[in-house]
Amino acid sequence: MLKSVSVTKVCGRITRWVLRVLLFELRRELTSHPFLKRSTQSRKQIHKTEMNHCELEEVTQHINDKISMIRRLLELRAVAKDPDKRGTLLKIEQEVSAINVLLDRFERYVGEQRGLLKHLKDLEGFFLEDEQDALHLKNNIPPHMPKRGQQAAPQGGGQVAVQSRQTDAPPVSQEQGPPRKHQRHQIKEMEFITVPEFDSIPPYMKGRVTYDQLNAAVQSINTAVTSKYKILHQPVKTLNNVSRTLHQRFKDQETKDTKGQFFIVEQDIREFAQLKVDKRFVGMLNMLRHCQRLKEVRGGGLTRFILL
Q1: Residues 113-141: pLDDT tens digits?
Q2: What values do phi and psi take at 247, rounded to 5?
Q3: What is the Cα–Cα distance from 189 to 195, expressed in whole angstroms?
Q4: What are the sequence ranges of the domains in the chain?
Q5: 183-307 falls under which CATH superfamily?
Q6: 252 and 301 in contact (C-beta within 8 Å)?
Q7: DSSP calls for the chain
Q8: Which of 25, 185, 219, 286 has the most CB atoms less than 10 A away?
Q9: Dihedral sign from CA coordinates of 143, 148, 153, 154
Q10: pTM metric for this prediction
Q11: Region Disordered: start and end of each range (predicted)?
Q12: What does the pLDDT look like over 50-81, one tens digit per residue?
């Protein structure tokens, strides 16, 4: 009996102390309010200025909130005196603590999701840059690049193309012997000029020739070389009169310096590539020679352009 009375007295003291603290805080907040603070500083200014409606509502709402809190504490004081309801308050306290733990977890989860969202936005920016680069490549494909359905020109030179084709072919046993005839019919083509190689050409040699125009000249030379050596690789008996004449002309143009090499002359460019070998085209041939795509061999009144 004495213990219950002492507990009740302690609860009453604690409640009164809490009420005093709340009243003290209420008084301090009211005195620190901007409107009331102005009133304490100068009473004359209060009579001269009218009270703002929003400030009055704010002060009224603040006072009502404090009064409601005091009423709840008074109700809790009566509940705390009942031993049966004190256990319920302890359970409520435990539930509130559990809710606070959950709120902390949710805050951490929200922070992680914000970081993940920032990371995803960065990835989206990278993907948009890649998409723009892909669209730029799609809209600026060099004209010398092969189209769909066309045979791609060898990008590593003629010898690299021959090696890659031989690698893709199935292995042949040594008893059958190497396919010499198939290797002899491979036609070498000039490798296209890369951007760094084009930039390395001196300006006085380059002039107004663009990168695409120079590679178009490479494509024309490859066309002339392919047309010429297709005729040379065919048996003479299967050729018509015009092709036989061309075949004989090609043989007459060969020298000891061109043996085993692929070369053309200006007449081949005019006939097979349908191009005019003027001063501008000769300048592009000099640029190709600078890039080590071909070399010139003179003799017999002809200039032979040998593919390197």
Answers
A1: 999 999 999 999 999 999 999 998 888 87
A2: -60, -45
A3: 19
A4: 7-81, 183-307
A5: Ska1 microtubule binding domain-like (1.10.10.1890)
A6: no
A7: -HHHHHHHHHHHHHHHHHHHHHHHHHHHHHHHSHHHHHHHH-HHHHHHSPPPHHHHHHHHHHHHHHHHHHHHHHHHHHHHT-HHHHHHHHHHHHHHHHHHHHHHHHHHHHHHHHHHHHHHHHHHHHHHHHHHHHHHHHHT--TTS--TTSPPPPTTHHHHHHHHHHHHSPP--TTT---HHHHHTPPP-PPPPPHHHHHTS-HHHHTT--HHHHHHHHHHHHHHHHHHHHHHTS-GGG--HHHHHHHHHHHHH--GGGTT--EE-HHHHHHHS-----HHHHHHHHHHHHTTSEEEEEETTEEEEEE-
A8: 219
A9: positive
A10: 0.48
A11: 138-185
A12: 556 677 777 788 888 888 887 877 777 776 67
Instruction: Report how far residue 243's alpha carbon sits from residue 273's, in angstroms, rounded to the nearest whole number.
Output: 16
The one-letter amino acid at 30: L
Under a CB-based contact definition with an 8 Å cutoff, are residues 34 and 55 in contact?
yes
- State the maximum Cα–Cα separation within the chain, in Å, rounded to a whole number: 136
